[in-house]
Q: What sequence folds into this?
């Protein structure tokens, strides 16, 4: 059995493009929620205006399929020129501690 994979993806929109990036994320999030293995795919806004996607995938294999999905390709094309730097993607492996419900995503 594979261990779930946690991912963060940080988007740094140009100040004038913040809403454009959010508008592009809406259909992408809806599409990704339908992908096999997607357990969590949620966007959050940081105080500096960056957008942080927190993801949880059932397995590395299904995450890899997601990475080449049409939804990701469409999103990349739609936002590329509206970011100050490329999206920063980090894959994480849980180190559960504490209670099972509070100590891991």
A:
């Amino acid at each position: 059995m594979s261990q779930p994979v946690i991912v963060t993806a940080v988007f740094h929109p140009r100040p004038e493009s913040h809403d454009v990036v959010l508008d592009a994320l809406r259909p992408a999030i809806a599409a990704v929620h339908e992908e096999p293995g997607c357990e969590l795919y949620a966007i959050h806004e940081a105080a500096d205006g960056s957008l942080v996607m927190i993801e949880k995938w059932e397995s590395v294999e299904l995450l890899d399929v997601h990475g080449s999905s049409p939804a990701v390709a469409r999103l990349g094309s739609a936002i590329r020129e509206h970011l100050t730097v490329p999206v920063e993607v980090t894959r994480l492996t849980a180190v559960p501690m504490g209670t099972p419900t509070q100590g891991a995503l």
